[in-house]
Amino acid sequence: MPAAQPVREIRPAHELPELPYDDDALEPVISAKTLALHHGKHHKAYVDRVNELTKGTELAQLALDELVVKTANSSPHSELFNNAAQAWNHDFYWRSLTPEKGDHLSPALGALVKSGFGGLTALKDQLAQAAVKQFGSGWAWLALEGGKLKVMSTGDAENPLVTGLTPLLTIDVWEHAYYVDYQNRRPEYVRAVVETLLNWKFASANLEAAGG
Ligand code: MN
């Protein structure tokens, strides 16, 4: 008798995740208008397209992060990769921001920041610089690579999952993230996000989940 194939459950369609705060919670840095458009239109469009492109295929069985890794660097899957990665990146971005005041780093994250950058101010400066200097559309990231922190940026939909790194925080620097509020003044948007909105509790939890 041939070995039985494992039965795969049909996975429900991907859903647009709810924002972890109200539309106006990040004002004045990010307006309710920007947040509503960015989440309700841009993010939603990526999720909807992933569902359209995977419907009725084996790829519909995969979770979003698995889909990103599976379709990366595969030209027949470039549209699916772009939409899946953008859907994943946006969910991660919303959770990288918080209206809660203060930099709440776990002791483990604080130690890595100190050993890697000398302190949080220097890390924030590097993250802001990566975000400002990313040419065109993309993302700035704090990631974990081999037990150390790394500041990096990626173009378009690319993200650190693709190269086996663990993302800890991200900043969206596509124009749609800031154009309504800042027009072409990306450095102002980036500086305000880095100084007041980054969710260091989320970064700490991501570090802990990675065993760091
Ligand atoms: Mn975006």
The CATH fourth-level homologous superfamily of the largest domain? Iron/manganese superoxide dismutase, C-terminal domain
Low-pLDDT parts are none
Order of helices and strands: HHHHHEEEHHH
Structural class: mainly alpha
Q: Based on CA inertia axes, which overall geometry fits?
A: globular
Distance between the termini: 46 Å
Largest sheet: 3 strands, antiparallel
Give the strand order of the largest sheet, numbering strands 1, 2, ... along the chain: 2-1-3
Q: What ligands are attached or bound here?
A: manganese (II) ion
Number of helices: 8
Rg result? 18 Å
Could you describe the 3D structure shown?
There is one protein chain. With 212 residues, the protein is mostly helical. The protein has helices at residues 32-54, 64-71, 78-96, 107-117, 120-133, 179-182, 186-196, 200-209; strands at 138-145, 148-155, 166-172. The protein folds into two domains: 32-96, Fe,Mn superoxide dismutase (SOD) domain (Helix Hairpins, Orthogonal Bundle); 107-209, Iron/manganese superoxide dismutase, C-terminal domain (minor pseudopilin epsh fold), CATH 3.55.40. Helix content is 47%, strand content 11%. It has a three-stranded antiparallel beta sheet. Helix 5 (120-133) runs antiparallel to helix 7 (186-196). The protein binds manganese (II) ion.
Tags for this entry?
minor pseudopilin epsh fold, 2 domains, Helix Hairpins, mainly alpha, binds manganese (II) ion, globular, 212 residues, three-stranded antiparallel beta sheet
In short:
Helix content is 47%, strand content 11%.
Compile the SSE list and pairings.
Layout: H1 32-54, H2 64-71, H3 78-96, H4 107-117, H5 120-133, E1 138-145, E2 148-155, E3 166-172, H6 179-182, H7 186-196, H8 200-209
Antiparallel strand pairs: 1-2, 1-3
The chain binds manganese (II) ion (MN).
Manganese (II) ion binds next to α1.
